[in-house]
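Lab meeting, item 3. Inverse folding demo.
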């Protein structure tokens, strides 16, 4: 028995995910009206779409700055896209501003986990191993990996929970923007300044 997909359902999913109307309707139809399942379908399609665009050159974009109230924290970021048309798009600009706020609030040190120095990862792994000494060997590996994931979510911007939507990571938000805007977007680099640090 199929459920009738209403315009209200489609619009609610669109607002929640940022996907296009037609994509939302198709996902709801595929999920037989289940909004959570439709959202998952859209996220999978968005990730696939973003992966296809990952090899495209990103030579345009924005350099944005943000100074936090009181002037004690500042952020400078470069986010690239494919065309200057997108770089001037309000949605893209809002995304870049949100990234500045994220960096000011959460204080990451690198863009992605690939940039974390191997020595730091080895040190974190060693600390985690010392903390779980005496636990069953089968549990040790899972606990250590869990602690490393937590470490990555503090130092790598893409792994951090988004301050405005903690249920999503910055990587999820980036994938949504790539899908919505239709171009490859890359967070190239950033610097976070803190007075006295």
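The presenter then showed the designed sequence:
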């Amino acid at each position: 028995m199929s459920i009738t997909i209403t315009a209200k359902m489609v619009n609610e999913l669109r607002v929640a995910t940022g996907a296009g109307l037609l994509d939302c309707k198709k996902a709801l139809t595929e999920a037989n009206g289940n909004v959570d399942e439709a959202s998952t379908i859209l996220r999978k399609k968005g990730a696939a779409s973003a992966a296809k665009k990952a090899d495209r050159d990103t030579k345009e974009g924005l350099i944005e700055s943000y100074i936090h109230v009181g002037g004690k924290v500042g952020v400078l970021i470069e986010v690239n896209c494919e065309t200057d048309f997108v770089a001037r798009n309000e949605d893209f600009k809002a995304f870049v501003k949100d990234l500045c706020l994220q960096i000011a609030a959460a204080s990451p040190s690198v863009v992605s986990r690939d940039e974390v120095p191997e020595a730091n990862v080895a040190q974190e792994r060693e600390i985690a191993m010392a903390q779980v000494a005496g636990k069953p060997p089968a549990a040790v590996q899972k606990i250590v990996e869990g602690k490393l994931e937590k470490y990555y979510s503090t130092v790598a911007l893409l792994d951090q929970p988004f301050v405005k939507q903690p249920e999503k990571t910055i990587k999820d938000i980036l994938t949504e923007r790539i899908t919505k805007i239709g171009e490859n977007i890359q967070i190239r680099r950033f610097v976070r300044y803190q007075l006295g640090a």
